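Deliverable D5.2: sample structural annotation.
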Amino acid sequence: MAIDDLKKACDTYVEQTKLLVALASAFLIAPAALLGLIRAEKGTVVVSASQLELLVWAEALWVCSVVCGYVVLGTVAGSQHDGTYNVYRAATRISSLLQLGSYLAGLVLFVLLVVGIVTQGQPSPEAQDLSEILDSRLRCRGIADSYVRENTDARGTVAADRADYSPARNSCIASVFGSSRPGGSTRSVTSVDYKVIDLLSGDVLFAGSCNNSDSKVADFCGNGRGVSLRDERDKAFALALGPSKAK
């Protein structure tokens, strides 16, 4: 092989080695670009111990790649000095393989690190749905408390036995128990009401009442009527929440 061809091959080898050194050097500062992804709301950087270990190993491998690249350049310079221009020397080939292998291994670890950081900040659809449902339930209970306060006065009291979010109606449903006194008097309760109410629309999904003061009337709460009304109200409440709650 002509000496000019050997020189060209040697120059190409040197350029490729320099390019790989530049790439590995660039990735040494790549973790700084991750700060925007791994900062919590208060500005602190949050990574797990395993993620930090991945980062350290990736950085170490890239440093190794850069060092091996300089060794490659040194071995090539030696062959240029003695006029052989031999890129197949054992020292050149081994250091080149170490340079490339270290760079690729560091790149794989870095990709794993990025994937781990990005995915840990994105809850699964199931977890997100559960969080939304829990938030909706808390809001519904707050609305139910407001309903109780607004509808309780000297004429009677109202209590929300249960309040929950209904995905089927996309609304808040309350199971209500109320008692009233005639004319706001302090006499014993005469009417007991059982209701299921859509708190947002105001729709009454179930309503039933009985008399608690006169055992001679047909709608007297005794003789199991009050229990029957409560059971019917509970069934209506479960039905309003959707099939999964009605079972």
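Annotation notes: The radius of gyration is 38 Å. Strands lie at 156-166, 171-180, 191-198, 204-211.
The annotation will be released with the project's public dataset once the embargo ends.
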